[in-house]
Amino acid sequence: CYLDSTVAMPLLTAYVLEHAKKRPLKRLYDRRGEIVSTLGKEFRRNYIAWKSGGKYRPGQG
Predict the structure, then answer these.
(1) What is the pLDDT of residues 5-21, one digit of tens each?
(2) How far apart are CA 51 and CA 23, in angstroms?
(3) Is the CB of residue 57 less than 8 Å from the CB of residue 46?
(4) Is the dihedral of CA 52, 55, 59, 61 positive or negative?
């Protein structure tokens, strides 16, 4: 069975858009300051631990 992508993609897209549930927006840009701050804190903590020869634990605050 073969179907050209110029035919298949619009059909699949229409189907998915019609049948998929709406998801809440994450609004990441609105939380940008908080996210960047957290990322910076984790980086500094892990970098200091790494430089001192200790263990660093990514993802653990």
Answers:
(1) 999 999 999 999 999 99
(2) 42
(3) yes
(4) negative
User: What are the residue boundaries of the structural domains of the chain, listed by start?
Assistant: 24-61
Chain CA centroid to CA 29, Å: 12
pTM over 0.70: no
What length is written for the chain? 61
CA–CA distance, 29 with 54 (Å, rounded to integer): 34
Both structure tokens of 12:
């699949």
Instruction: Check: CB of residue 49 under 8 Å from CB of residue 56.
Output: yes
- Residues 46 and 56: beta-carbon distance below 8 Å: yes
